[in-house]
Every structure is written in C-alpha cells, then in structure tokens.
Amino acid sequence: MSKPSDLVQGTLDLLLLKLLALEPLNGWAISLRLKQVSGDILQVSDGSLYPALHKLEHQGWVKAEWRTTESNRRAKYYSLTRLGRAQLAKETANWDRLSAAISGVVRLNQV
Amino acid sequence: MSLLNWLYTIPLRTRALFQRSRVEQDLEDEFQFHLAQRTEANIAHGMSLNDARLEALSALDRISLRKEECRDMRGLNFIENLLQDLRYAVRVLRKSPVFTAVAVLSLALGIGANTAIFSVMDVLLLRPIPVMQPSGLRLITLSRKTGPRVSFNYPMFELVRDRNRVFTQTFAWTTVNFQTPQANDMLLIPGALASGDYFAGLGVPPQLGRVYGREDDQALGGKNGPVGVISDGLWTRRYGRSPSVIGQAIILNAVPITIIGVMPRGFFGAEVGTAPDIWVPLNLQRQLMDSRCIGSSDCWYLITMGRLNPGLSVEQAAAQLQSISRGVMEDSHPPTRADRKAAFLAQVIQTESGEAGFTGLRRRIRGPLEVLMGLVGFVLLIACANMANLLTARASARQKEVAVRLAMGASRPRVIRQFLTESVLLSIVGAAVGFLIAIGATRVLIALLSTTDTPVVLDLNPDWRILLFTAAAAMGTGLLFGLAPSIRATRAGLGAALKERAHQIQGSARAASFGFTRLLLALQVALSIVLLAAAGLLAGSLVRLLTESPGFDPHNITVVSVDTSKLREKGPALIELYGRMIERARTFPGVESASLMSTTPLTNSGWDNTITIPGRTDISEEERDTNINAVAPRLLETMKVPLLAGRDFTDADTAESGKVAILSETAARKWFPNGAVGADMGLQGSTVRIVGIMRDTKYLNLRDRMQPTLYVPFTQWSQGGFIAIRTAAPLRQTYAMFREMLREVAPGAPIRTIRTMEQQVDESLSTERLTAYLSLFFAALALMLTAIGLYGILAYSVTRRTNEIGVRMALGAQRSDVIWLVIRQAMGQTAFGAAAGIAVVIASSRLIASLLYGVRPNDPAMMIAAVAALALVCAGAAWIPARRATRLDPVVALREE
Questions:
Q1: In whole angstroms, how far apart are CA B114 and each of B110, B373, B375, B476, B583?
Q2: Alpha-carbon radius of gyration of chain B
Q3: CA-CA 20 to 30 A from B36: which of A10, B541, B668, B823?
Q4: What residues have CB less than 8 Å from A75, skipping those under 6 apart?
Q5: Burial of B460 by CB count in 10 Å (0-12 exposed, 13-18 middle, 19+ buried)?
C-alpha cells in the first residue's frame, strides 16, 4: 500500500478514526472533511484513502453500511465500532506521548 | 490482530469469500460514487465536464491498483486469488486440449510407473507388517561368509530360544501346504507350522476364540490335542463366518485339528507374500507331515524371529547373542569334517530388522527392483523435462498476455503464481490419472512375480506412503518445472514483449532465450539413451537366456508332482507305486514316454554332494562337487538328452542290484579323462559304477554354466520324485487323465503341482522377464516423451521462424535447405544429449552387471543401437515441423508480420 509521504506513519488511521468518531461519513465526505479540518496541510490523496478505510473495516474498527445521500446517491458510510473507540483512545494516547516527546526534542534544539 | 477483531470481522470475510461478485460491485460503486462527487465538485468550481472527470480520475491515482490494495486489505486475497487462478487455469487448459492432454498423459505415465514400482518396493521391502509394534521384531540370522543365513534347524532354534536373554518371545515358522478333504476330493490349502510363542510374539489377538501357546506346541498337541488357528479368509469361504467354527475339527493331512481361533482380516503372519489359511503348532509336524525335521539338524527350514525386550537396545541384544553363539553351535551337531566344522562353529547369531517382515522374494528381486526404481525415476525426470519444455514454449507464446497483465498493474509474483497454479493443476491431474494407472500396473507386477511354486499374495491397498509418494511427486514436478518457465516469462517483462518482433529476426537473441529449453532437451535425450541402453542390455540378457539351450528339449513335457506323504506305502512299496504310476502314464493316449526325476530342473533347488574318485588325490573337494538327480529309466529319452556312451538305466537297476550312475560330459571329462564308462566312484559311502555318459544339461537355473551332473537310479537313492511325461496333449487333458489314474493306483494322494516344462522354464526367468519387459516399456515411454518434447520445440521454433524461413525462401533457398535447417537444429540438440547419455552409460553400466547374462555391460553394439533408435525417433519427430516449414508460401510468410 502506498502511503502519503507527508503523513507520519499510522497517523492516517488515527485521523480517520477521529473523524468517524464524530459522525458516520462516506469516503468523499471524509476527503472533504480532512481538507477542512487540517486546512490543506495534511494532504491525503483520494486514492490512498480507500485502502486505509478498508483496512480499518477489516480490522473491525469501523463498520460500513450503504445509505442514500442528500443528492440521492447510494454511498458507503463508515462508522466507528466499539473496538474502534477503544483503538481511538489507545492511538490518541500514543499520539499525545509521541507529539509531546517530539515537541520536547524540537524545543531543545531551538535553545 | 487480536482474536476479538478476527471474530468481529467474520461476517465480512465470509461475505468477501462467498459473495465475491457483490463485494466487487460494492467496491466499484464506492469508487464510482467518489468519482461522481468529485466531478460534480470540479464542475461547480468551473471546470468543463471532461476536465472535471479527468481530474477526479487522476486524483484517485489508478483505480484498478487502488482496488487491488483494498482487496489486499481483506486478508483473504490469497485464497481468493487461488480460486481465481484455478478458475483461470482450468479455462486456459481447456482452451488448449492437445497441450493439456499431452502434458497430463506424459506426467500420468511417469508418475504412474513410478508409483507402481514404488508400491511393490513398499509392500516387499518397506511397509511394516500388520502386527503389534512391528518395530520391536528382529529377524534372527546366522552370519556366514556368503551372507546371512535366514533359515534355522529345529534344535538350533530351540537352543537360541532357550539361551537368549534379549527377546521376550522367540518364535519360528515354516509355510507348508496341507491336504484337506473337500467334496470327495483332496484340496491343498496354504498353511504354516508355527512355534508356540508365534502369536504371543506377533501380539495380534484373534477376532474369535483364542490363539495357541507353548503348552499346545507338543508332538501330539497339548491337553486339547492338536489345535489350529484359521484365517479370516478360510473362515469366510469354508464356514460362512459362523461363530460355531470354534471347536470344530478340520482334517489336515488326515489328522483332525481342532479349530480354536480365527485371526482378523489382513493378518498373514510375518512372511510377506504368503497368505496362510491355517496355523498349527510346529511340533505337530511329525504327525502331520511324517517328517523327521523336528529334532534333526539336517533340515534348515525355519524362519526365526524374536521380539526384542523393550528395555534393550539392538546393540545390547547383538552382544548377548554373540556371546551365546559359540555354545549354540557346539551343541547343535556340527559337521564332522574339519574344514566345515570350523566354518560352522564360527557362525554368529545376528539379527536384522523384522519390522517389514520376512520374505524370500526380497533377495530375489531387491536388485532388479532397485534398478527398475532408478530407471523409472529417469522416466519421471523426462516427463518433467517435457512438461517444463511445454510450459516454456507456452509461456513464450503467452508473452503478450504476460506483458498486458504486468502493464495492468499485476505484480510479478502474482503472475508467477498464476503460472504455477497452472502447472501444479496439471501435475495434480497427471498424478491422479497416474495413481489409477499405478493401481492396475501394481497388480500386473505382482502377477508377473508369482510362480506356481511361490504364489505371491500381497496387500496391494495403497497406504499413506504411496499416497505421499504420489502427492510429493506431483507437487514437486508441478512447482519445480513450472517455476523456471514462469520466472523466465515474467523476467522478459514489458520491454521484451515489445521487442518480440525484433527477436524473430535476430537468431542469436532467440538462441539465448531458448538455452533453458535446449538444456532440458539434452537432458531428456541423455536419459533416454541411458534407458535405451539399460533396456537393450536387460532384454538382450533375456533373449540370451530364452535361447540358451538347457541341454534337454523342454517342449511337450508335462511335470507332475504327487503328494504321497499320507499314503501307507513307504520304502520299496512306494518305489513300486511310482513305478506303476510311470507305467500307467506311458499308456495315456498321445504320450511318447514317461519317467521320473527327483529334481525338476531350473527351479533353483536340487541335490548336490561331493564324490570321491579312487586313486585321484589331485582333485580338490570343491572340484568334486556335483549336482545329482535320482531318475527312472528312460528319463534321457523323455527329456531328449542324448546318451553319448554306455547305457541308460533299466528296470534291472533296483535297490538290490549294484549301484550305477550316468555322468554328464563335463563331469566325465573332468574326472575321468581316460574314459568314464566302467569306472568306479564313491558317493555317500557307496561305490558306484559308471554305466553311461550323457550330454550336459542345466540344473539349478539357466544362468549357471554347465556343471558336473550325476544321474543315479531313483530306486537306489530315493523313493519318488517328479513324473515327467512327454506328450503333445494339452495340460488340462493330462491333468484329468493323471487324476483319474491316481484314484485307481494311489487313492488319497492328490496332485501337488502339474505344469509343462515350458512353463517351468518361463517361471525360472520370471524376474528376468519382469526386469526386461519393464525396462523396455520404460525405454519406449522415454523415447515417446522425448519425441513429443522435440516435436514441440521444433514445431514452436518453426512457427517463430516463419518470417525468417520466408525471407530465406524468397532469397532462393530450396525446400531441401529448409528441411535441412530444421533437421540440423534437431540433430544438434540430440547429439549433445546423446553424447552425455553415452558417457553416463559407460560410467554406470556396471551397476546392472549382476542382472545381465551373456552381454557385456559396455557392449558397443548396444550403444550404437540405442543411439540409432533415438536418432530415428528424433528424425521422425523433426520431420513433421520440417515439412510444414517447406510448405510455407514465402509471400504469405512475409506478410504474416
């Protein structure tokens, strides 16, 4: 699987879990939301989004169902499972530790 | 991933596996939805419809690849791909039925032949016998200079049994035929005389009743009298599986035996190849067989086994047995003559594994079987090389398909896997067909091994070893010979496919890419030469043996053996009875003459002894050893052995008259260079007057050189023997007449065996025939496979060179030039392989030297014949593609591009 080069390994999973924790979304909506919330800083190509979503689905962290959109199209909506919430908590904690550690190092360099 | 996650996603996985088209449609829909949304968004931003769509597509960055990534996420892709590959493989193979048929058939023949030979080897040499913990059984043998002796006499068996401290049970047996009355007739049933600990040692409980033990193994039986245990087969045939069989009596050799147990189905004891119907205690032998072998040290007839004490290692057992050996030898009547005594006393009691049981066949066919296994292995290699060649040719033809698949985003391992699926599928189908072939072929093999004297009854049910063997052969060939072509096919990759056109004109580049195929072809040719040479040598030996004159005329002779053991007549009365039988046989219609001999020739059994020559001390004892046959008058006439000097025996040569003998030419020349007739010699303490000299005859078998042979009157040395009848009447008629005559002359004496001398000669060569026929068959198979391989390569190469041939013809090449072009390619490829094959033959032909007769292992004529046969077949295989090349119309050929 090709990975977006500007995303820290594994963070795409975290972002997707976080977005889906707020509300069920389809793939297209997720791509829009990603752009919105990160203000174009996190570039996730449309192509790499779907394999990531399918991976989460097959790990049992998200589940999918087909619904009709406002524009009356059939779309696959992803939502978080119970296991997914646990995973999100775990990855958030991981992320906090990691980012704290990295910021620490970065600040150290600035001194 | 944790188990919980796995459980959680089971419905998802099941769906992915079994509702594949639904899941695929969902995947497609999902991407289409995304495309539609993005296109809409783009249009809203002011793009044209076309641009909007293109932008959306490029944002997804190769949809098919993304889809494949999504599929990979299912984690089931392996199984799914396999199913997909299988479906595809079946489709591809069905589309080219000729290729598939050739590949499957050559593999089936290769695997089938291998499995058949392996089955026989398995059953005779490898398979553990169906008894309790067979690995604990040891076959007890005596060490001798000429190799271990497997047979024991009774006193020695008792000594070993009572003095060893390494076996929990020591037991011995011999297989015999018993007479039993059935519907006013005498029937012979196969049985075994087995010592008291036999059943305890083998540890197989009866399915009904009980087995006998030491207490029953006495001369007149134990407290229950003579008892016996019968086989499941006899129980079914004779007693209809009735439980009331226990306690019933069965008459064996006129002695009533109480049946006390029925062994389970499949039990045959410890002697592979036999199928006794009844087991009786060994000590009943005197009563049953009227034999003095119990207590005599002259009968070497018992096969002895022991069950090793579980606490002991084989080495410990060997040490203890060695330590008792000397005492056992000293106490079992060693021969009196000094040199023989020393050799006798030096014998050491040894053991070998009894796990696979004992079989007399083992010694006879181990050598041939090993050679055949080697040859048949070559056939499989050739078949595999063929398959690799076919696959390579196909892979090259499918280069474009491969290129397209690679361009579409398929990974190289994925394409290789697809190719491997095809080759493994081919080999599995080949193996399945081969397995069916093997089941039939094994039966034929066993039938070829059976003779009248030693019928071979084997458990032919394929066991796990054979299944494993076939499966391994199939997977091995599929993977091994599918891998190389597929790697080659995918290595070429995109560029090569585009350059394919260029390749067709660049001869050198093509040659390089075909190196692998050529190497395989050379291998096939080399192996074929080896097989042809081996087959030629073995068949040559058989022909030499078949045309070898035994010294007598084997045509139109019937040999009858009568079981007289239960008759009241003994000694002179029996001699007289045999005289009457011969007399009556002479009166049968169509009978030219009839006589008797104590040893029937070419059965590898007989009587030999050392004679003494008065006044000659210069001839060593070994040189005075002679084959002896006790015969009736007119045997020479019956066998058509020319009498060279003196006279034949007459009815006047009786037990009371002076002892006489007829010498063979060789013996007379060796011992009495100054004239034998009228001379005296010593035989077993008697003085014998030589009255005649006859032409040499073969005695034990056809392979032996002519050895000194001595005929003596049966009236002076024996009480009976085989009745030889010279008649043109068919066997069936002679049998009927003889039986009728026996009812009158000797009621109660059944015919033991009856067959023609020709059958006997044939049977004496059964192993040689088996080896020769099979090696010829394998060689033919090898030739056929090689021809197919060569044809395939040439046909393919002609197709690829259509363009080149067109150019050549347009430039003025003659048809003969074109034919030469193709034939030259064929010959070049054959010659290298043939040279390699001859080198292998020269280096290895000594391996089969022991199986040969009358031909030298490195017979140049045989090699030339092998190469000639191969060249002929290869030329034939090359002819068809060569002809096709000449039929090319240059214009059409050039336009084909």
A1: 6, 7, 9, 14, 53
A2: 37
A3: A10
A4: A26, A27, A28, A66, A67, A68, A69, B30, B33
A5: middle
Of the candidates A1, A59, A76, which has its C-beta nearest B30's C-beta? A76
* B659 token code pair: 């002892």
Cα dihedral: B695, B698, B699, B700 (round 10) = 170
Nearest CA in chain B to A50: B70
CA dist list (Å): B546 to B342, B365, B543, B554: 41, 19, 5, 11
Number of CB pairs < 8 Å for A and B? 80
A103: distance to nearest CA of chain B, Å?
31
What pLDDT tens digit does each residue of chain A (111 aa) get?
344 444 555 688 888 888 898 888 888 888 888 888 776 666 677 778 888 888 888 888 888 888 888 878 888 899 988 888 988 998 888 888 888 888 888 887 655
CA atoms within 13 A on the CB side of B692: 22
DSSP secondary structure string for all residues of B18-52 = HSHHHHHHHHHHHHHHHHHHHHHHHHHTT--HHHH
Of A2, A51, A75, which is closest to B73 when you measure between CB atoms? A51
Contact between B269 and B195 under an 8 Å Cβ cutoff? The reply is: no
* Cβ neighbours for B58, distance < 8 A, ≥ 6 positions apart: none
Q: How far is CA B246 from CA B127, B182, B326, in A?
A: 32, 19, 44
Which chain A residues contact residue B62 at CB under 8 A?
Answer: 47
> B612-651 pLDDT, tens per residue?
888 887 887 778 889 999 999 999 999 999 999 999 999 9
Q: Give the separation between CA B325 and CA B348, rounded to whole angstroms.
A: 5
The tokens of B794 are what?
Answer: 């040439």
Q: What CA–CA distance (Å, rounded) separates B283 from B618?
A: 46
Q: Is this structure's pTM higher than 0.80? A: no
Over residues B779-836, the pLDDT tens digits come to 888 888 888 878 877 777 777 777 788 888 888 888 888 888 878 877 877 888 888 8
CB contact under 8 A, A76 and B33: yes
ipTM over cut 0.90: no
Residue spans of alpha helices (H) in B247-359: 285-289, 314-330, 338-345
How much of chain A is in helix, strand and coil states, percent to nearest 5?
A: 60, 15, 25
Q: Which of residues 68-97 of B touch A (CB under 8 A)?
A: 69-70, 72-75
Facing residues of B682 across strands?
Answer: B612, B687
| Dist CA B553 CA B561 (whole Å) | 20
Q: How far is residue B189 from each of residues A86, B318, B769, B850, measured CA to CA in Å?
A: 80, 38, 29, 36
Contact B562, B574 (CB under 8 A): no
- Name the closest residue on chain A to residue B39, using Cα atoms: A28
Binary contact (A83, B69; C-beta < 8 A): no
Min distance A109 CA to chain B CA atoms (Å): 38
Supply the DSSP string of B717-764, one letter for each residue: H-S--EEEEEE-S-HHHHHHHHHHHHHHHSTT--EEEEEEHHHHHHHH
Nearest to B695 by CA among B658, B646, B649: B646
Q: Are B263 and B207 spatial neighbours (Cβ–Cβ below 8 Å)?
A: yes
Instruction: Say yes or no for a CB contact (<8 Å) between A74 and B33.
Output: yes
B892 close to B496: Cβ distance less than 8 angstroms: no
> Using an 8 Å Cβ cutoff, are B332 and B153 in contact?
yes
Beta-carbon contacts of B281 under 8 Å, excluding residues fewer than 6 positions away, are: B193, B194, B195, B196, B212, B216, B217, B218, B221, B226, B227
Check if A107 contacts B (Cβ < 8 Å).
no
Of the candidates B702, B716, B452, B712, the residue with the CA atom closest to the CA atom of residue B608: B712
Q: Does A4 touch chain B (CB under 8 A)?
A: no
